[in-house]
């Protein structure tokens, strides 16, 4: 049984214009304008993890920190840990028009073979919200 403060989280972000970041070992990353969803998980401390991602002034530890230090989080979706981080990331990537242009972003420790855990949705987040 998962601890009570464990789960999957998704962060919805909006980039009004393209953004270039240097992200750890991934190097230079170019992100298109539009909505982006990052999928992550916490085996414990879910609330603290989400709060950390919502802060802009923080040490850059995870790939997503490089993005959330520059762009605010619009929405957060929480799911049970049993949903599986990779399954949720893959379902998000399968939404109409979605893609994962930055191979390895957020999935460097993934054992399920995910391309990434950061997904571009394009100019609308409607498919993700339903």
- Class based on secondary structure composition and strand pairing: alpha+beta
How far apart, in Å, are the first and last alpha carbons? 28 Å
Radius of gyration (Å) = 14 Å
Q: Count of helices?
A: 4
Query: What is the string of helix and strand elements?
Result: EEEEHHEHEH
Unreliable runs: none
Beta-strand portion reads 25-35%
Q: What's the total number of strands?
A: 6
Read across the widest sheet, the strand sequence of neighbours is 5-1-4-6
- Domain count: the total is 1
Mean pLDDT, to the nearest integer, reads 93
The percent range for helix content is 10-25%
Overall, the morphology is globular
Main beta sheet: 4 strands, antiparallel
Structure, described:
- With 130 residues, the protein is of the alpha+beta class.
- The protein has one domain.
- The protein is 22% helix and 31% strand.
- The protein is built from 4 helices and 6 strands; from the N terminus they run ββββααβαβα.
- The strands form 2 sheets. The protein has a 4-stranded antiparallel β-sheet with strand order 5-1-4-6. A two-stranded antiparallel sheet has the order 2-3.
- The longest helix is centred in the middle third of the chain and has 9 residues.
- It starts with 6 loop residues before the first strand and ends with a helix.
- The relative contact order is 0.25.
């Amino acid at each position: 049984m998962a601890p009570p403060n464990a789960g999957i989280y998704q962060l919805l972000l909006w980039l009004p214009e393209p953004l270039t970041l240097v992200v750890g070992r991934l190097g230079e990353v170019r992100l298109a304008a539009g909505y982006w969803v990052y999928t992550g998980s916490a085996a414990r401390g879910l609330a603290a993890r989400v709060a950390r991602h919502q802060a802009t002034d923080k040490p850059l530890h995870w790939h997503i920190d490089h993005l959330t230090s520059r762009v605010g989080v619009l929405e957060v979706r929480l799911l049970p840990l049993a949903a599986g981080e990779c399954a949720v990331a893959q379902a998000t990537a399968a939404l109409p028009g979605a893609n994962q242009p930055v191979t390895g972003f957020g999935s460097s420790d993934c054992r399920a073979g995910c391309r990434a855990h950061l997904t571009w949705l394009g100019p609308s987040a409607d498919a993700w919200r339903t």
